[in-house]
Amino acid sequence: MKSIMYHYVRPVPTQLDYSRYLHVDDFCRQLDWFAARYTFIERDAFLGSLREGRACEGVVLTFDDGLSDHYCYVVPELIKRGLWGVFYVPTGMYSKGKLLDVHRIHLLLGRFGGDMALKLLQDILTEEMMSHHHVKDFHEATYGSQRNDPATNSFKRILNFFISYEWRERVLDQLMERFLAGGNERDLVDEFYTTPRQIRAIHDAGMIVGSHGVSHLVMSKLGLEEQEREIVDSFAFLEDATGSRPITFCYPHGGFHTFTRETEQLLATQGALFSFNVEARDVTADDVRLRPQALPRYDCNKFPFGTASFGPKRPVSPQPAAGHGLE
Ligand SMILES: [Zn+2]
Asked: Taking 90 as the threshold, does the pLDDT of residue 172 lie above it?
């Protein structure tokens, strides 16, 4: 079984000349490509195989971050094709009225580009804001497979992994003032994410809605109690929004460095049937049987037509990143 991960899926965005996203036309072409080579697993067969601890053949589509893109462009396309997907929604932005920090980072990079964004950050950053014991762990493991310029990688590494969480929000508040230029961030939340009503509609359309935590934090950076709160609170929010208890989770940022065996245990205790990590390989019967809370998933950029567009620029070639070993 191949599970595929998507984030932004949209037409060319306005006012975000440096943003990375999968153009909705490329998304459709990639679905065609999968359809020509594999089967898409039926939802009930997929859930049945997980419950019985065996693998099944075919493709499962997953969509992270609760983006309004998914409601506007992805779900209608899936419905048209008779397909379904798993939608991983973080929940903290609704009560807060601010974008989650991870998405503020994307928007800042999308508007200003890596060099300018890094310069704005360096003007604010001081030594005491950094949490140095994480630097070594995360430096090697992060963003190696993304095709970013060095300034973009530095900007993301500092804000996602190196800065202590107590400082990150304050630093991003300042940077967002530049982005908003007098606008209101709460309005941006409604525009950027699926609303709770849209989450319900996605669920009612036959999709699976899973949790992506409350605040999209790296779980391994949190104590066990905080991890539990991320899981319990996000599950409760989604149960309220959809009318069904969530049965799945995906780790914010992903990769084995972002969660621990205790995280997996907590998820199993809260009733997660399966959880997705980011590890570019097929899901085997052993994965399903022995480690259902860390199932592997491919980024869509490992397959043809999955390469990100950059601002208004479309990828030159539909070919996947080198070395994926599929064709
Ligand atoms: Zn995410």
From this structure: yes
3 state SS of 84:
coil
Rounded CA-CA distance 64/317 in Å is 25
Q: How far, in Å, from the CA of 184 to the mean position of ligand 1?
A: 23
Ligand 1 centroid–CA 250 distance in Å is 8
| Distance of CA 254 from the midpoint of ligand 1 (Å) | 8
pLDDT of 221 above 70: yes
Ion ligand 1 residue ranges (Cβ < 5 Å)? 64-65
CATH ID of 2-91+193-310, from 3.90.1010.10, 3.40.50.2300, 3.20.20.370, 3.30.590.20: 3.20.20.370
Which among 29, 37, 32, 33 has a CA at the least distance from the CA of 57? 37
> What spacing in Å lies between the alpha carbon of 218 and ligand 1's midpoint?
10
Cα 71 to averaged position of ligand 1 atoms, centre (Å): 16
Ligand 1 centroid–CA 206 distance in Å is 22
Q: What does pLDDT average to over the chain? A: 91
Token pair, residue 190, equals: 């409604």
pLDDT at 202: 98
Under 8 Å between Cβ of 46 and 67? no
What are the pLDDT digits (tens) for 10-22?
999 888 999 999 9
What pLDDT is stored for residue 141 in this prediction?
55
What's the average model confidence in pLDDT over 99-103?
Answer: 94
pLDDT value at residue 158: 92
Report domain extents, the chain: 2-91+193-310, 101-187
Interval between CA 89 and ligand 1 midpoint (Å): 8
From the list 14, 37, 108, the residue with the least C-alpha distance to 305 is 37
Task: With residue 232 as reference, give the H or E element that holds it.
Answer: helix 224-242
